[in-house]
Write a structure and sequence with these properties.
17 helices; globular; 0% strand; mainly alpha; transmembrane helix; Lipoprotein-release_system; Putative ABC transport system permease protein
Length: 441
């Protein structure tokens, strides 16, 4: 088994690139926030200056960034394992047991994730040093602020990111181990079309938890500062629930969002593909929903709190948070879009053989990616609106007055451009010779 793992990692590196990128950047983001937060705590005990404000700011930034990184790491690893179902079916056809397949998947993802986590964590340390210098020049931050090296944030970020990746691989490996040997013979996609009971239960619990947090925030809390925290917790909890329910939530939203695209032949085909394969659509929609829900909710709530004169809602920390989360979400969108298209070489070649030109094939892939991005934006806006409604009820501000159309439109446009661009590049490379309907990677 170890020999097969080593051979896979040596000769099929392209299969693991998407996972490596997601885990590496996730570990870097986790390590960066943990390092700055730990530095503020250390300096608070050593310096005569007050670091309570910076500690609170870094705690908020860290919570949001860590959630985003672990969310994307888990979803990307799960997508990577799911897309290798045909490989697992081939192993089953030559005598591998489901248990052996599961062990293979977990070991491969464990090794890839470990290497990516170490590289990402170490790469974040010089970045933390540079960012500490930037923070020291901000008015609300003590001038003595600096990055203090400590083993704790390094160890925590390494362990947490790797464990999340391995847990995601373990969960997905169960489905991979269930691949039928017949799938390798027929070339069919035997992936389950319905959610398993585990995802139903976990998704329902977290979705209900998000709804409960929204209700609790609206009825029991009138402090704007605390209400902002509730906005994040409610959004994060609901996002986990929605991601677990994935296709169940994405399919109806994608059907609604894709209506304007059905006016053309290419758009109609793309819309049908997006709705038919909701699992694939959810892979791209997930990071976009994360970016939209967290940023729209937090920005609108923080701006409203600032208008009310609430202390501690520093806008500079908000813009840094936006930059970090948008940047990481952008990496996730490009990564997942490319992963889903590269694994569809046979499907794209079939379109070519059916008479579609290379340009039409690329446009179809781009349209699918745009619809998926819009679907994620719509889901994110719904979650953010619900969280902001609770904030508005609790603090007495106007929900309509909280809305920032430019922010929502900007995030949606950014996601669509990223998805379309990465789909164009990936489709152009994946089309190749249309007569090669079966390609061994």
């Amino acid at each position: 088994m170890n020999g097969l793992v080593g051979a896979d990692l040596r000769h099929r590196t392209g299969v693991f690139v998407g996972t490596f990128v997601a885990v590496g950047f996730g570990a870097a983001l986790f390590s960066l926030c943990a390092a700055l937060f730990t530095s503020a705590i250390i300096l608070n005990g050593e310096s005569s200056e007050d670091y309570v404000g910076p500690i609170a700011v870094f705690a908020t930034m860290g919570a949001i960034s860590v959630f985003a990184s672990l969310f994307v790491v888990a979803s990307t690893v799960a997508l990577s394992v799911e897309q290798r179902r045909a490989d697992m079916a081939l192993l089953r056809s030559v005598g591998a047991t489901p248990r052996q397949v599961r062990r293979l998947v977990i070991r491969e993802m464990g090794v890839v994730s470990l290497v990516a986590t170490v590289i990402g964590t170490l790469a974040a340390l010089p970045v933390a040093d540079a960012m500490a210098g930037v923070f020291a020049g901000i008015d609300d931050m003590p001038s003595e602020f600096e990055y203090r090296r400590h083993i704790l944030p390094v160890g925590v970020s390494l362990a947490a990111t790797w464990l999340v990746a391995v847990l995601a691989a373990m969960t997905s490996a169960r489905a991979a181990g269930a691949a039928s040997p017949a799938e390798a013979m027929t070339g069919s996609d035997g992936a389950p079309r319905r959610l398993g009971i585990t995802r139903w239960v976990i998704g329902s619990i977290f979705t209900a938890g998000g709804v409960a947090l929204i209700i609790v925030s609206a009825t029991t809390n009138d402090d704007p500062g605390l209400a902002i925290g509730y906005v994040f917790m409610a959004s994060a909890t609901a996002l986990i629930g929605v991601s677990m329910l994935g296709p169940v939530v994405v399919r109806p939203m994608a059907r609604l969002v894709s209506l304007p695209f059905r006016a053309t032949t290419t758009g109609s085909i793309a819309a049908m593909n997006v709705v038919a394969d909701a699992r694939r659509t959810a892979a791209t929609a997930g990071p976009v929903a994360l970016m939209t829900a967290i940023n729209v909710g937090m920005v609108q709530a923080t701006v409203a709190a600032n208008d009310m004169g609430t202390e501690g809602s520093q806008m500079w920390s908000l813009w840094i948070m936006i930059a970090i989360s948008v940047g990481f979400a952008a990496i996730a969108v490009v990564n997942t879009t490319a992963m889903t298209i590269v694994r569809r070489r046979t499907e794209l070649a079939s379109l070519r053989l059916a008479g579609a030109t290379p340009a039409q094939t690329r446009r179809s892939s781009q349209t699918e990616a745009v619809i998926a991005a819009l679907t994620g934006s719509a889901i994110g806006v719904v979650i953010a609106t619900a969280a902001c409604w609770a904030f508005a009820v609790a603090t007495g501000v106007s929900l309509i007055g909280m809305f920032e159309p430019a922010l929502i439109g900007g995030l949606a446009g950014f996601a669509m451009v990223l998805a379309a661009g990465s789909a164009h590049v990936a489709a152009r490379r994946a089309i190749g010779d249309p007569t090669l309907l079966v390609e061994v990677e």
